[in-house]
Sequence to fold (217 residues):
Amino acid sequence: MLSNVSPKTASPEVRTALLEAAARLLVEEGPASLTTRRLATEVGTSTMAVYTHFEGMDKLRRALAEEGFRRLAERLDQVEGSDDPVADVMVMGVAYFTNAMANPNLYHFMFTEHSNEDEIGLGLETFQRLIDGVARAVEAGRFKGEAEELATQLWVTAHGIVTLEIAGVLDGEGLQLFAEMGSNLMRSFGDDEDSILRSIAGAAERLPPAFFGPEGK
Fold:
């Protein structure tokens, strides 16, 4: 029980619970709901626990961004490079989508509640993984164009689909749409149909359920 943990002693379990509750309150009730008292009540601890783990609400917000991008980076870093850079990009896309579905409240905070350039910088560091993956596809002659520009198109498409899926608009069809639109973009990047189909097959073989970890954490 979290209530049995001393609020003066740092605990990974309590820290995670505070972050999860903070992200949920921000999404469901807005910034005004995020107070130390309300957060402590949601988690079943004292207000002291908030200061023990974060020193206050400003650093808790920073920690929310860090946790969200840490989980995303952890997922993306599981994608091992292969001799098919386009399949690698596809697997990264599925990892991105699945991470968002497993952490919808954190995902919302990462892209809609950030408040300063420092938090935005966390996202750019993670985005670099996609840029690097796309750059490999450009170097292999599969894509034509500037890697950062192509990666931005992929991310904008992915973010729109993920946001609609989290909102329940797509009725669970987000991942299929994700794959279809991703393939369409890759054609526009200069890749040919047969190569895309081979990459899809190769990517599918690399995605056992255990790849994504328990509950996306």
